[in-house]
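Structure first, sequence second, as always.
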């Protein structure tokens, strides 16, 4: 694993890289462990995965104050330039998929293609729409699992844990909305609460609630692959189903046994779609 700090103007971003293939930037706002543990070894062997921690998170310096998905795309391109890469693909999961789309919009000459995984082009509607679907579709054991986790989180004394640990536990308490198995234990994937998680997610809840790129999708001319889970109640697939046609070169893959994390729940299908797309986009 290659590791370095990259100066992006006002901050130094922590960057880790593995693999020797086509370079793929993987933006993160909650540490790199989750993505190193959920993206398969097959992808790491076939591509060069370059994890970039956002300002004020993980081992990156700076602050999340004033960030936008567009400014984070700017930081990604500064990393690309610092690493001496002429072209890159970008793979963003969940809210980081928004960064990938902004990169495609802002940097068409250096973006070979971008992947939006378990994400949405319109974050304004994502949680409300997902909750409505959850209410209609979730099984009794899933709803019971969510209630149990929510009760456990409500019993946590905020003064007994750090802000990052509290936000981490809050996220874990939503697990049934993001995983196909209602009792899936995702803690080992995170390797503990990431530094800066509280500040980043607080920023995300405020900024993301108003983010919508659908009106600008027709201005994106680089290839875009959207991979969604059929049972994703955090970023529902239908937000892409209604928008994918606006892209000049867009492809939507909906995996029928996945929720919010298709890269982990259906790795073979996810990897096949991503590798096929990246190789085509790279030309």
């Amino acid at each position: 694993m290659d590791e370095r700090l990259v100066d992006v103007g006002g901050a130094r971003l922590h960057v880790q890289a593995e693999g020797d293939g086509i370079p793929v930037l993987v933006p993160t706002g909650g540490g790199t462990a989750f993505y190193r543990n959920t993206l398969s070894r097959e992808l790491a062997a076939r591509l060069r995965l370059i994890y970039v921690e956002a300002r004020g998170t993980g081992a990156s310096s700076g602050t999340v104050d004033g960030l936008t998905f567009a400014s984070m795309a700017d930081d990604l391109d500064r990393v690309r330039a610092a690493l001496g890469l002429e072209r890159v693909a970008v793979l963003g999961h969940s809210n980081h998929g928004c960064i990938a789309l902004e990169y495609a919009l802002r940097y068409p000459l250096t973006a070979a293609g971008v992947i939006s995984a378990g994400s949405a082009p319109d974050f304004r509607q994502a949680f409300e729409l997902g909750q409505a679907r959850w209410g209609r579709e979730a099984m009794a054991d899933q709803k019971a699992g969510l209630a149990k986790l929510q009760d456990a989180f409500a019993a946590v004394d905020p003064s007994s844990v750090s802000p990052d640990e509290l936000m981490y536990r809050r996220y874990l308490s939503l697990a049934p909305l993001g995983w196909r198995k209602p009792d899936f234990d995702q803690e080992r994937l995170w390797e503990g609460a990431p530094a800066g998680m509280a500040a980043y997610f607080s920023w995300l809840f405020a900024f993301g609630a108003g983010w919508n790129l659908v009106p600008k999708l027709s201005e994106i001319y680089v290839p875009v692959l959207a991979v969604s889970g059929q049972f994703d109640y955090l970023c529902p697939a239908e937000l892409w189903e209604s928008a994918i046609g606006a892209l000049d070169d867009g492809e939507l893959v909906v995996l029928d046994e996945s929720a919010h994390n298709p890269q982990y729940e259906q790795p073979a299908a996810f990897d096949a779609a991503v590798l096929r797309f990246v190789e085509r986009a790279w030309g």
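Margin note: The two ends are 27 Å apart (CA to CA).
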